[in-house]
User: Fold Hexosyltransferase from Prolemur simus.
Amino acid sequence: MRCPKCLLCLSALLTLLGLKVYIEWTSESRLSKAYPAPRDTLPGPTTANPEPTLPTNLSARLGQTGPLPLAYWNQQQWRLGTLPSGDSAEAGGCQAWGAAAAAEIPDFATYPEDLRRFLLSAACRSFPRWLPRAGGGQVASCSDTDVPYLLLAVKSEPGRFAERQAVRQTWGSPAPGTRLLFLLGSPVGEAGPDLSSLVAWESHRYSDLLLWDFLDVPFNRTLKDLLLLAWLGHHCPDVTFVLQVQDDAFVHTPALLDHLQALPPTWARSLYLGEVFNQATPLRKAGRPFYVPESFFEGGYPAYASGGGYVIAGRLAPWLLQAAARVAPFPFDDVYTGLCFRALGLVPRAHPGFLTDWPADRTTNHCTVRNLLLVRPLGPQDSIRLWKQLRDPQHQC
Ligand SMILES: *[C@@H]1O[C@H](CO)[C@@H](O)[C@H](O)[C@H]1NC(C)=O
Ligand SMILES: *[C@@H]1O[C@H](CO)[C@@H](O)[C@H](O)[C@H]1NC(C)=O
Assistant:
């Protein structure tokens, strides 16, 4: 061996090169996750009109212009006037909508259990707040304190105490113009441990939990969106922006605030900002996550921002509620939000600083995150370390 050091160098270089290719490959394949493969996508609204409108014929707005597919959602959307409101008993109310779906979908029995459960109760959308028995833990209305510029509305689940605490200690910690709220279903659960007393204590201690009395499962996340929008109407109508985000995201709050403050006013008025999927279509592999049977939905998804975290203009809350009353239920919260925005004639805006499905080795690097607005997923410990590094002038990049 004439030059063992050269050989060592060469093999190290090759390893590094291989590693780089691998990292790029994995991050690309993971980024294109979600509901991939462009196919016959619905044509999107062409011009970005900044003002929401809600036409009488939503089918056309939602791109249902060709021959009407037989799939249940498409048929429903065609026929739907408004969904039965939760507290009315008109024509059997919200339960009747689900019962009809179960009866009219020929292969309903073969649907995955969570999709069946979703459809049975999908039109039931009014739920009372879940309040701790001992009282206390009231979430103050915005007028009682002051109106936030950016409300951080974090979708959590009752058992995820550590995730919530990490958010409170990091990107959700008090800052001028921001306010932090967590959105949760019932802490009683179905078969799991009863977390009522722990959640009641937490609610009392922090007064930042908005809880409603429904089963907290992923297919019920749209309820959190809709109940939040209704809460905003009553308690925080003048909020400028709302970040709807999962509790395993890391938000670079100062950078996000800077970005929002610099937006052109016409964009800001109708904002729907995040990591945007433009040409996604339903996944058809039964047994896999995000599976959507052909007999339920046909066509492409509207352009939508990934549910990992996106920002909307607060003034759109009442508009979105009106749209939701007339858009047939769909199991994925982010796709459903995309449908509602599309019904209003509004388009999402993509920002490359939102990365909602990033490899763990990147999300924990403060130098990469420094220039981003939101990354996900991150564990509580990683969030805390990252927040410290981002704020520490010693940690130069
Ligand atoms: C709604 O729009 C679609 C597509 O343009 C059209 O085929 C349908 O007739 C319209 N429905 C009504 C009730 O006007
Ligand atoms: C959502 O919550 C409601 C009310 O608790 C429940 O009836 C329904 O089954 C839940 N949805 C799913 C998909 O479990």
